[in-house]
Automatic annotation (TrEMBL):
This protein's encoding gene: rplGA
Pfam families the UniProt entry points to: Ribosomal_L7Ae
The protein's name in its UniProt record: Putative ribosomal protein YlxQ
Species whose genome carries this gene: Aneurinibacillus soli
Record flagged with keyword GTP-binding: no
GO cellular component terms, A-Z: ribosome
Length: 99
């Protein structure tokens, strides 16, 4: 298990993660998300919707892994989109994703 997956799992256990397209979009609109992570195999429509929202509201986003990888990191079923609600976790994940 790599450091990104470990950090996602830690953030999940700390309840600093939200998942699901509609919940993440709502949180982006309300300013409650510091980072959005999209699966590489997200549907084109989902990817466009979330990247447009993130760009519009100034929320950084990253593309990482596939839906199975994201789900496994969170200890859940497949996940396409993950919102990180804590600034510290978001900063560390961004750093790890750019290594």
């Amino acid at each position: 298990m790599n450091k990104i997956n470990q950090m996602l799992g830690l953030a999940q256990r700390a309840r600093k993660i939200i998942t699901g397209e509609e919940l993440v979009v709502k949180a982006v609109r309300q300013g409650g998300v510091h980072l959005v992570i999209l699966a590489e195999d997200a549907a084109a429509n989902t990817r466009k919707k979330l990247t447009d929202k993130c760009t519009s509201y100034g929320v950084p986003y990253e593309i990482y892994g596939d839906r199975g990888t994201l789900g496994q990191a969170l200890g859940k079923e497949q996940r396409v989109v993950v919102g990180v609600t804590d600034a510290g976790f978001a900063a560390k994940l961004t750093q790890l994703l750019h290594q």
